[in-house]
Amino acid sequence: MQKISDAKEKHTFKALRKSFKYALNGVFTALKICRNLKIHYLLAVVAILAGFYFDITFLEFAVVLLTITFVVTLEMMNTAIEKVVDLLTEKYHILALIAKDVAAGAVLIASIVALIVGALIFGPHILRLFG
User: How many alpha carbons lie under 13 Å from residue 51 in its C-beta half-sphere?
Assistant: First the structure.
């Protein structure tokens, strides 16, 4: 019988460095293979630059960064779920469809909320610019 201690990770600096290496590899791999993530990153850069341009408050910047992180993280999880489902089955299965659709739905909801947050924070600045 296996014990919990058998699954314990090594607590060395070398092991920690490897963990970061794998995590960064995951970030760049997701960026390479996921079209939607490229779009999210592009919009994130636009939002960050707009934050500097409009000189938004520290709190507004924090909200923008948290919102970006929320959307990007969900998109990466969606990609991971899609790849695992594709690995497990090549044929149509209702549970595979549900898993993929629910993960994509989570990204959609986060993206809609991000759009609303962007409108609330940047809307008044844009209106003043054109008004």
Answer: 18
- DSSP H helices, 1-131, are 13-33, 35-53, 58-88, 94-130
User: By C-alpha distance, which of 70, 66, 17, 46 is closest to 122?
Assistant: 46
Instruction: Output the CA torsion sign for 98, 100, 101, 107.
Output: positive
Distance CA 7, CA 75 (A): 29
* Tokens 């940047």, located at residue: 122
* List 9, 60, 75, 82, catalytic entry: 75
**In this structure, how many other beta carbons lie within 10 angstroms of the beta carbon of residue 129?**
10
pLDDT digits (tens, 9 = 90+) for 77-123: 999 999 999 999 888 899 999 999 999 999 999 999 999 999 999 99
Neighbours of 86 (CB within 10 A): 11
90 is catalytic: no
